[in-house]
Every structure is written in structure tokens, then in C-alpha cells.
Amino acid sequence: MWRYVAGGGAGLAAVAAGVILWASRDTPSAAALPARPIAALEEGQASLPDTVPEASARTREEKRFGRYDKDRNGQITREEYFVSRRKAYAKLDTDGDGRLSFDEWAAKTNGKFATADADKSGTMSAAEFATTAVKRKPARAVKCPPAAATAEEG
Length: 154
Hints:
Residues 86-115 form the EF-hand domain. InterPro entries: EF-hand-dom_pair, EF_Hand_1_Ca_BS, EF_hand_dom. It is a single chain. By secondary structure, the protein is mainly α. The protein has a domain at 57-116. It is 56% helix and 0% strand. The chain has eight helices and no strands. It is elongated.
């Protein structure tokens, strides 16, 4: 019988030690924290913001301006402004003659039609046409644990 009492006492001591160690991890010691920011907060000299600052519209516009201003002189010339358009045009002008034919302009659509026309009949059935629909990314589903699981864990 004394073995059960001694085992139960040892078990309770182990649980108590675990609780004490766990509780000591949640409260950081003063030595672990930097002294300067705490002193500044105590004196009221500095305070932490309540929200995280977001990029302003002006910052985004400055970034966009920087992408166009290739020579970094603070001004966008007509040539700098049209660089992205010239690159897009060059990708479409497959024969490089400086002119866009309808087939060059519609190359992506031609390829999409050819891929969808599985039986190569030159026409698309309703099922073939359904494959041309734009694939949209699904909204991110929030994965929450079932209510019963959270009550058991707590």
C-alpha cells in the first residue's frame, strides 16, 4: 500500500514541477528583455503603435514612377513610357515585320481554340467550349478546427 502512496506523491510532485516550469516560460525575466526600450516606455518618451503601418498610395505611386523612369532623372519621357508597350507588341509580332496581322494579334485565342477542339472538327461542342472558361483561383477557405476539438483541447 505504501508503494501506491509514494507513487502518487511522486506523480503529483512531477506535475507540480511541470506546471512551475511551464508558467516560468510565459513570463519573461527582466534580464531577458532589452533594458533601453523598457526604460523609454516607462518614462513616456516612446510608445508602440497600435496598428502596423501600411504603404501609402504615394509610396505605391513612387514605385510605379520608378519602374517607368529608366534613366532615374525624375522625368518620364515618351520613349520610357512606351517601353512596356513595345515589349508587348514585339511578343505579338511573331514575324517581326513591324505590323500586326489579325492572326498574330489573336495567336493566344487561336491556340486556346485548337486546344479546346479535342476532336479537331473545327467546331466546339458545349463540352469542349466549357474547357475554355477562365480558371479562377478559389477563395482561400479558412480552416477552423471543429468546435468539439477546441473544447477538448482547452
